[in-house]
């Protein structure tokens, strides 16, 4: 199985050397064709680090993940390609556990899961997967659980014939929109929960900032219905956080989980106010 590997990146120098080294370690050299990075006008050494590791570097024509992903797809030559994000350390057994899922004719995309590098955050996400991944395909379809474009392999022909990555107005939600399109067409996105990559995090604050970013995308992706849902979740998050903290025996989850949920709500509310101010 010959593959191209793609990445869209912005100011990723902090983690990039470790991430690129792991890609070279995990994906067999004889199967790796091209390494393609689309840089979103980084102000650090992202582009030069990528070139040092033998990657071709192209400029993101518009900015944001949708444009970067589609620019990367434009350069793919192989029948299969892999996307890895700039802060994800591939599982060492990823090649053995994820690409074989595409042997099924109806499966057009496959991925593993990723858990944060910080212990308390890892336990929080483990709780989610412990609960829902007993029936992976059920929850992949119903909640897009495990669906991600950061440690993922695709059938190139499907991606091109279906129009590429969803061209959303925001960078968040590309994976969910792609999964929805796949399932509605009667095809499959398979997730192997045993292929566990690492989402590199230097602090819990870094994760909370990501949840704030996710919140800024909610008004565009889910409108008032989505805002109502995340408001309800935020209100009950202290109770939920306490429950998870006790079950996983990790006290930091008691306050981390509510902080994540309230950060998401804050991001959504700020976007709503900004949008209303423009009209």
Tell me what you see in this structure.
This protein has 11 helices and 8 strands. The chain is α/β, with parallel strands linked by helices and 279 residues long. α9 packs antiparallel against α10, α9 packs parallel to α11 and α10 runs antiparallel to α11.
Q: Roughly what fraction of the amino acids lie in strands?
A: 15-25%
Annotated CATH homologous superfamily of the largest domain: Spore Coat Polysaccharide Biosynthesis Protein SpsA, Chain A
State the assembly state of the protein chains: single chain
The average pLDDT value, as a whole number, equals: 94
Unreliable spans: none
Backbone CA Rg: 19 Å
Number of helices: 11
| Domains (count) | 2
Write the CATH architecture name of the largest domain: Alpha-Beta Complex
Main sheet characteristics: 8 strands, mixed
